[in-house]
Amino acid sequence: MLAAQKANRILGCIKRSGASRSREVILPLYSALVRPYLEYCIQLWSPQHKKDMDLLEWVQRTATKMVSRMGHLSCEERLRELRLFSLQKRRLQGDVIVTFEYLKGAYGKGGDNLFSKACCDRTRSNGFKLREDRFRLDIRKKFVTMRVVTHWNRLPREVVDASFLETFKLRLERALSNLF
User: Fold this and answer.
1) Residue 180 and residue 36: Cα distance in Å, rounded?
2) Cβ atoms of 114 and 98 closer than 8 Å
3) Burial zone of 160 (CB within 10 Å; 0-12 exposed, 13-18 middle, 19+ buried)
4) Beta strands of 13-122 (E only): which ranges?
């Protein structure tokens, strides 16, 4: 995959040229130079095959191993210590943020028809459920409008009821840190 190759090349340049392997040096370089390649237009082309997802995650694992005194920790522990999400969780976060923007009308009137709202009067729900439509073609199941439905419906009410995007992002980050 081309995105992983480019990100890995940049990571190699950082590794060869960096004098320090401290968190304060590696983390900003990774966030600014490598991660954009791993996440560019991810809501559109979102990797569907496990081998593609594993390849992208491998680049992030390599980057977290570069930080001094972290090589002995497991990948999950390194991510937690560095306060990073896995790329899978970041893809989910991006999908849910795009869904919020569409539902709040950020992309004009066309966003109203992208998602089917479910009629739900239950008190334990988040109050704004989306309906998962059925399609004969499997390719439609991979669209962002279908990928995000189950995750959106699991979000707590206080996340979904946010009025502003920044508030939504903060609440979503807290909810996602407890999700996985």
Assistant:
1) 23
2) no
3) buried
4) 116-117
SS3 of 126, please?
coil
Residue 39 per-residue DSSP state:
H
Length of the chain equals 180
Q: Where are the domains of the chain?
A: 2-84, 91-179
Closest to 159 in 3D by CA, of 173, 174, 172, 176: 172
Phi, psi (degrees; rounded to nearest 5) at 46? -15, 120
Residue 71: other Cβ atoms inside 10 A: 11
pLDDT tens digits for 63-87?
Answer: 999 988 887 889 889 988 888 888 8
* 104-149 pLDDT per residue, tens: 776 666 555 666 666 655 545 566 777 666 656 665 666 767 778 8
Q: What values do phi and psi take at 122, rounded to 5? A: -70, 145
